Amino acid sequence: MPTWLEHICHALIGRTRSHDDLPDLRDLPTSRVDVERTYYLVDDPERRTRDDRLYVLRMGRGRTRRAADISVHSNGRVVGYLPAAASAALAAPLAGLGGAAIVNGAGPRPGTTRLRVDLPSADAMRSLRATTELAAA
After folding, report:
1. Burial class for 9, CB neighbours closer than 10 Å (0-12, 13-18, 19+)
2. Cβ 70 vs Cβ 87: under 8 Å
3. Which residues of 104-128 are buried (b: 16+ CB within 10 A; e: fewer)?
4. Which residues pair with 72 in a beta bridge?
């Protein structure tokens, strides 16, 4: 589903208020990463499109042995998790932002079923945190 259509869906079902409270990381420099553990979480229609879409990253609840577990949400449900290295790199900055943030993503590349998410670079997260701290002061 395209990002603009997800915004309309969220507006119609009343979930936009929760997104307004979250930090928006979509304008930061990013790199695209495959989402893991999506095999039974994402229905086939969502995998058929390769369009950009809106995702929410949320800190995990410690149900795995990983030090940091960050889940990827779409339309209010979990669609997968970040790889271990990406979770470890984003855990502290994401926790500093309140444990959740909005990012862009995309459908699978040709020949695969893995969804993709655009993760901000470490430098971008540091600059965002510094900007946020200055605004709060």
Report:
1. middle
2. yes
3. bbbbbeeeeebbbbbbbeeebbeeb
4. 57, 80
The answer to whether 80 and 42 are in contact (CB under 8 A) is yes
Query: What would the two tokens of residue 98 be?
Result: 């309140």
Q: Which of 5-9, 48-52, 116-120 has the lowest mean pLDDT?
A: 5-9
Quick one: which of 49, 101, 59, 56 has its CA closest to 77?
56
What is the crossing angle of helices 84-96 and 122-136, to 10°? 10
Range of the domain at 101: 3-136
Find, among 73, 64, 79, the residue nearest to 114 by Cα: 79
What is the total count of domains within the chain?
1
pLDDT band at 60; cut points 50, 70, 90: confident
Q: What is the amino acid identity at position 19?
A: H
Residue with tokens 């889940």: 71
